[in-house]
Fold this sequence. Notes:
Elements: H1 5-8, E1 13-23, E2 31-36, E3 40-45, E4 60-64, E5 70-72, E6 75-77, E7 80-81, E8 83-87, E9 93-97
Antiparallel strand pairs: 1-2, 1-4, 2-3, 4-7, 5-6, 8-9
Amino acid sequence: SLIGFDKIKDIELRVAEIVAAEPVPKSTKLLKLKVVAPEERTIVSGIAGSYRPEELVGERVIIVANLKPAKLMGILSEGMLLTAEFKDSDGNDRLTLASVSTAVKPGTKLA
């Protein structure tokens, strides 16, 4: 359904740099990420099926910065990564991160 500009303007999208990533214990889908946007925060994301933690460090991604914090597997998540879902060449569902050039500084607000 369509939403009005009055609703979309409330969503704060920012560039964040992933500075650390690790698996969430007892989960096959979740990764715990430390990001800087420009303040440091923790984000828990269901991207473990598409990414290994070590390949994420240094990536510049887009986050929803003003999402109400929520606990996932006992970890407080302070935002959400933007991703796109697609099928790989074998027909498996995969996620890809919405990202920007490393020239864009963490904390930059998307318009």
